[in-house]
Design brief:
This protein is of the alpha/beta class and 371 residues long. 36% of the residues lie in helices and 16% in strands. The chain has a 7-stranded mixed beta sheet with strand order 2-10-9-6-5-3-4, with helices on both faces. A 3-stranded antiparallel beta sheet has the order 8-7-14, with no helix packed on it. A 3-stranded antiparallel beta sheet has the order 13-15-17. β5 (126-130), α5 and β6 (154-158) form a beta-alpha-beta unit. The longest helix has 32 residues, at 233-264. It binds ligand T4K.
């Protein structure tokens, strides 16, 4: 939905300096090398590998294709355990590989897959777990890995919301067998559209790079039925410029989160997420959870009330993925199997948060919410 210029939207993209971008465009014009592993692509891969502290990262054209490719690269078959409380792309990637998604309920406190409920969903056909660090809150990676090790399962983290996050000084992307990122316009770091797949070793990265280029290993050798998911030079150049300003953007987002948290802390019926000790958060989203009987009005009523004031919040993630027609016939999609996810989807509202959001705008949002 395109926004009206006077409205406050749930997010707004981080844009590179236009003059700097023009300089890089001129260079690209000179080179006439505009895609297929060009110099800006190589430079961005290297810069992200350093910034994110991950040795093996492959750029992609969006955040959905790395999920699809991770399942391919790890030869996943049968059933994949996942969360219903995410953006549809997570489950769609399983479907696109002709695999069966098996939904497991989430933790009330974080919205992440509940490790204690994973074992009951494992069958002889289960080969992988695909958790999501939803809103950037880290999953219980230790417990998930213990279960994966016992049952011999692969773990692919959808880390679309977790760009730049660390836990006790280590990149969140080091968990599991692979992690994916989205660099969509609405994300903390964007390349307009874009994404990445992070793996653990050089041989796997090489294979991923074949897979994202139709399976070509050289001019005449195709080693797998790959796809085309290469990032072009223009977006890679955009990404290099945005990377320079991402720390400042995260600091500004933190400021917005602090304003919300301090104003909402004593409002009955509103629950916010809080920072976790040892985690470098990126403040990618600001979800609140409304309990109608204490707050006075429902989540949907608040959504409408804010909209009347031109404040466009979003109900990420409602409806649950498991409620969409393509998935709701699955046994694991039964709402009785997913009581916490069902509750969170009915309560959640994501408030506007982005680097350039003005204090005055936050005050306006809070005024509507607290009157
Ligand atoms: N896994 C997870 C957990 C994800 O959240 C996502 C994507 C993926 C995987 C897949 O990654 P990608 O393949 O998308 O890279 C958005 C995004 O399109 C999507 O990337 C994101 N998650 C999802 C949570 O949100 P919409 O349909 O809500 O976006 P839209 O167009 O309504 O934009 C939201 C607001 O952002 C607008 O009201 C205004 C603002 N906006 C948006 C755009 C595109 C701008 O100001 N400028 C813009 O150019 O899906």
């Amino acid at each position: 939905m395109e926004k009206n210029l006077t409205s406050i939207t749930v997010t707004s993209p981080l844009l590179p300096d236009l003059k700097e971008f023009e300089k890089l465009l001129e260079d690209i014009w000179q080179r006439k090398w505009i895609t297929n592993n060009g110099c800006y692509h190589k430079e961005l891969e290297k810069a992200l590998s350093e910034y994110l502290c991950v040795p093996y990262i492959s750029l992609f054209t969006n955040g959905t294709l790395p999920l699809i490719t991770a399942l391919q690269a790890l030869h996943i078959s049968g059933e994949v355990i996942t969360t219903p409380y995410s953006f549809v792309a997570t489950t769609h990637s399983i479907w696109w590989n002709n695999l069966k998604p098996v939904f497991v309920d989430v933790e009330e406190e974080t919205g992440n897959i509940d490790p204690e409920k994973i074992e009951a969903a494992i069958t002889p056909h289960t080969t992988a777990i695909m958790p999501v660090h939803v809103y950037g809150t880290p999953c219980n990676t230790k417990r998930i890995q213990e279960i994966a090790d016992i049952y011999g399962l692969k773990v692919i983290y959808d880390a679309a919301h977790a760009f730049g996050e660390t836990v006790n000084g280590k990149s969140i992307l080091e968990n599991g067998d692979m992690s994916t990122l989205s660099f969509h316009a609405t994300k903390v770091f964007n390349t307009v559209e874009g994404g990445a797949l992070i793996c653990r070793d050089e041989a796997t990265k090489k294979r991923i790079d074949y897979l994202k280029n139709f399976g070509f290993a050289d001019e005449v050798t195709v080693v797998a039925p790959g796809i085309n998911s290469k990032m072009d030079e223009i977006r890679a150049a955009w990404g290099l410029l945005n990377l320079k300003q991402v720390d400042e953007a995260i600091a500004k987002r933190k400021h917005v989160a602090e304003l919300y948290r301090s104003a909402l802390k004593d409002v009955p019926g509103i629950r916010c997420l809080h920072d976790i000790a040892g985690v470098r958060h990126n403040y990618s989203y600001f979800p609140i959870f409304i309990t109608e009987k204490d707050y006075g009005i429902s989540r949907d009523a608040l959504y409408e009330k804010l909209k009347e004031s031109n404040i466009l919040t979003r109900r990420y993630f409602y409806p649950l993925i498991s409620n969409f027609p393509v998935y709701r016939g699955l046994e694991s999609a039964n709402p009785a199997n997913l009581p916490i996810a069902t509750k969170l989807a009915a309560q959640v509202l994501c408030l506007p948060i982005y680097a350039d959001l003005l204090d005055d705008d936050v005050a306006k949002i809070l005024q509507v919410m607290c009157k």
